[in-house]
UniProtKB/TrEMBL annotation:
GO cellular component: cytoplasm
Domain MROH2B-like HEAT-repeats: 6-147
Pfam annotation, one family: HEAT_Maestro
Protein name: Maestro heat like repeat family member 1
Residue stretches in coiled coil: none
Keywords: Repeat, Signal
InterPro entries registered for this protein in UniProt: ARM-like, ARM-type_fold, HEAT_Maestro, HEAT_MROH2B-like, Maestro-like_HEAT, Maestro_heat-like_prot
Record has Ligase as a keyword: no
Protein's organism: Podarcis muralis
Domain Maestro-like HEAT-repeats span(s) in chain numbering: 173-396
Length: 827
């Protein structure tokens, strides 16, 4: 009872005394001395101070009354020290009372001006510095006293909640907040013992909160922050911290004295490397949530440091974070749109890349959850995954497997407009877009060459599948579609073509594969109307650049027998040109491909039929000696095309291509039918057909010694009018082809001296073309009077031509014939 009597007597004296400042200080010092003396007794824990509450209230009132712009007396530090001793006495304080003690003590110290400013305003700088040091030391004693009595994680949370508001832009405020944090953690390090096998639950969040300040602009902030990290490390690891780690932490702490930013970041990262050894993976989410707040703070140095710590922890401890990876990625994705500063955005992007090195499948799945069209952030994330060449190749393999996943049933291919709307499969299309992004940052060719056959076939197949399809439809966008009918959502086939182009251009610099030129392969490939031309041209450039190998052939060959019309078209078009590769000319492969081309030549799909005809022509062109038994059959197929208006152009071109390489027995009696049908197209409405027919007619006329010369002479005579008139065809290519055909036909139109005369006249005459034609016509009419009626009859048919030039030439020709007739009658 004796201490209580003394305290109550002392308390009564105070109530009777005046409120003089010196008396206040004396009272506070006496209270401190009494409480300290009690605490130093052996059995003070059994002692209960009955006036503890009243004494606490008085001391707190004294602290509140102290000015916040000056530090003139020792009352403040003495009062806080008295609270430290008083708090240890019974009755024990409730958490609310503890919180109030700490809060009032912090509020009396932290708002003070900086030490430099206090010294400037005070008369005695040394005294001010001493008072300031005593004040912060008093706070340390208070924190230590409270922690000693209640070293629980809950108390730590309470204390940091009180300190947190003082991490402001003010250097002195941050310094005091960090110093108080260090005091708190040091007290916990001394008094808190983790159970074996457990982790300190606040370790991840506190490291994330404090670590960025190791690169603060203030030297004192950096030192206090380093001490905080050291304390946290020992609280978490206990005795597991090795001597090497202790030395590394001390060395890094010393290096934080530097003023060069790069040296500070390097030292801070070294501390992060040590911390990562003892980092509990189950706290990764807490760590990331907190450190991302520092990443967007206004302090640039701390933000950069936060990014370095984040990446270091992810790279060093990421392999053990599997249980939280999905949530971690969600946090990164949600934060990415809110960060506008490019270097800080890159931290998040690199963080995703770091996670992918340990949990690639999870990262890929998370990116596949993002909708199409692919936004810039998603593209940026895919590119970040592709910057590591070894990982990029693995990703490409996985993406190729995604693209190749079985698709939904497709509608029949129409190669044109269709009222039905068909949407591309979302999964394969996302993977296709991802391939484009990964390829855009991959600069090594070695790995791509190995993957090229699989990737090429996968992407070309995807191009085929997405022809005439629209972007996947999301229910959530229905209103948007209704409100904005002209919204552009992208073309799935165009996206597929872009990925295929990126792949091919990685291995070749062929200028013909560029965006410019008379025929743009990539534009043709993505257009349903010209897809087959694009596919065949692409095949040609592959073997020209030695990129067409056996693996591609094996993967693409089944397309020609696919149930998909689009894939049949793509496969047939591809092999129609690929067949020219000498490698495919080998008997075994040719034996597999030729029957398929012959079958597709009768396909109901027009484009497939056209490409099969082109392919068969190339077979006869490059491997005629290996298909001797099939030559007549192939020629018969070509003959059949002349009776089909849809493929007559391909048939004419194919025959013109192969006839010089055929023997008489390869054609046989079909020569007559081919010649006859060719003449029917000499005046066709389509300029391409006219050109092709004149070209073929000239080739037929130029064939050496064959038994149908008499027959062909009759065909040439019957075709004299178009052979003359179309030399003035509106289309220059037709005119040129007609002129060549006429020259080759001269031997069948005249004999002996007349033939020699006409050939020489046609090739060397300086006469204008109309006069030359009239001169030739005069020579022929003179030689063959019976041709007059036939010439006039056939010329008359051209009077109604849609082309004015043709009408004029027909009239000139008729006039010439009539004039010659009149001359003969006159004579």
């Amino acid at each position: 009872m004796f201490p209580n009597i003394i305290v109550w007597g002392f308390f009564a004296c105070f109530l009777l005394a005046t409120q003089d400042s010196n008396l206040k200080l004396a009272f506070v010092e006496s209270a401190k001395d009494i409480c300290q003396a009690i605490c130093e007794t052996q059995d003070f824990q059994n002692f209960t101070l009955t006036c503890k509450k009243e004494l606490l209230d008085i001391l707190l009132d004294f602290i509140k009354e102290e000015p916040l712009d000056a530090l003139n007396t020792a009352l403040r530090p003495q009062a806080i020290t008295a609270l430290a001793f008083l708090s240890k006495l019974k009755p024990c304080l409730a958490m609310e009372d503890i919180r109030n003690l700490l809060d009032q003590s912090i509020k009396s110290l932290f708002p003070l001006p900086s030490l430099e400013q206090l010294e400037e305003t005070a008369g005695d700088a040394l005294k001010t510095e001493s008072l300031y040091s005593c004040s912060m030391d008093a706070l340390r004693k208070l924190v230590t006293s409270i922690v000693e009595d209640c070293p629980t994680p809950e108390l730590m949370v309470e204390m940091f909640q009180l300190i947190d508001p003082w991490f402001t832009v003010s250097d002195c405020s941050r310094e005091r907040a960090l110093q108080a944090s260090s005091q708190t953690l040091a007290a916990f390090q001394e008094n808190f013992q983790l159970p074996d096998g457990e982790n300190f639950q606040q370790f991840g969040s506190l490291v994330a909160f404090l670590a960025p300040y190791t690169c603060d602009g203030s030297f004192r902030c950096r030192q206090w922050a380093a001490q905080c990290i050291s304390c946290l490390l020992h609280i978490q690891a206990q005795t597991k911290v090795t001597a090497e780690e202790e030395e590394e932490m001390l060395s890094a702490c010393c290096d934080l004295k530097a003023e060069v930013p790069s040296a500070l970041f390097e030292a801070s990262c070294r501390m992060a490397k040590v911390v990562s050894v003892h980092f509990p993976p189950d706290q990764a989410l807490d760590f990331i949530e907190v450190i991302l707040e520092d990443l967007v703070s206004g302090n640039e140095m701390c933000a950069i440091s936060a990014g370095r710590w984040l990446l270091t922890i992810l790279w060093d401890s990421g392999s053990a974070m599997g249980a939280q990876v999905s949530e971690i990625l969600d946090i990164f994705y949600s934060r990415l749109p809110t960060i506008k500063q490019e270097d800080l955005r890159q931290v998040l992007v690199e963080a995703v890349a770091a996670v992918s090195h340990f949990h690639l499948d999870t990262v890929i799945e998370s990116l596949f959850c993002r909708r199409l069209p692919m936004d810039s952030e998603t593209g940026e994330l895919w590119r970040s995954l592709g910057k590591d060449p070894s990982q990029a190749l693995l990703i490409l393999c996985k993406l190729a497997a995604r693209v190749a996943e079985p698709s939904s049933l497709e509608a029949p291919f129409s190669s044109g407009s269709n009222d039905s709307v068909e949407f591309a499969d979302e999964g394969p299309l996302k993977a296709t877009c991802a391939i484009y992004e990964v390829l855009s940052v991959l600069h090594t060719e070695e790995g791509i060459q190995e993957l090229f056959p699989e990737l090429f076939c996968t992407l070309l197949k995807q191009v085929s599948k997405t022809l005439e399809k629209r972007m996947p439809f999301y229910e959530g966008r229905r209103r948007l579609f209704l409100r904005e009918q002209h919204l552009s959502e992208g073309n799935p086939c165009r996206l597929s073509v872009a990925s295929l182009k990126a792949l091919v251009l990685k291995l070749t610099t062929d200028p013909s594969l560029a965006e410019f030129g008379e025929v743009n392969i990539w534009t043709s490939l993505g257009d349903p109307r010209t897809h087959q031309e694009g596919a065949s041209l692409l095949a040609r450039h592959l073997f020209q650049n030695r990129l067409l190998d056996q693996k591609i052939i094996e993967k693409a060959l089944p397309w020609m027998t696919s149930e998909s019309e689009k894939l049949q078209l793509t496969g047939t078009a591809f092999f129609s040109e690929a067949i020219r590769d000498p490698m495919l000319g080998e008997r075994v492969r040719l034996k597999s491909i030729l029957p398929l081309l012959m079958k597709r030549a009768g396909d109901h799909h027009l484009g497939t039929r056209q490409m099969a005809i082109k392919g068969l022509a190339n077979v006869l062109l490059v491997a005629a000696d290996k298909v001797k038994q099939q030559k007549r059959t192939i020629v018969a197929i070509f003959l059949g095309t002349l009776y089909d208006a849809n493929v007559v152009l391909e048939g004419l071109r194919a025959l013109a291509l192969v006839f010089p390489h055929l023997k008489r027995q390869d054609v046989g009696f079909m020569f007559k039918d081919i010649s006859t049908k060719t003449t029917t197209y000499l005046s066709d409405f389509d300029a391409e057909i006219r050109e092709a027919s004149f070209h073929l007619f000239g080739i037929l006329a130029d064939l050496p010694k064959f038994r149908y010369r008499t027959f062909f002479a009759e065909q040439a005579r019957k075709s004299l009018v178009p052979l003359l008139i179309h030399q003035w065809d509106p289309n220059p290519k037709v005119s040129e082809a007609c002129r060549a055909a006429f020259l080759h036909s001269v031997p069948f139109l005249a004999k002996g001296k007349l033939r020699v005369h006409l050939e020489e006249l046609y090739t060397t005459s300086s006469l204008g073309l109309p006069n030359l034609r009239m001169h030739i016509c005069k020579q022929l009419v003179n030689s063959h009077p019976a041709m007059r009626r036939e010439l006039l009859k056939k010329t008359k048919a051209y009077f109604q031509s849609r082309w004015e030039e043709i009408q004029i030439r027909a009239l000139e020709l008729s006039d010439g014939v009539y004039r010659r007739v009149l001359i003969r009658f006159t004579v």
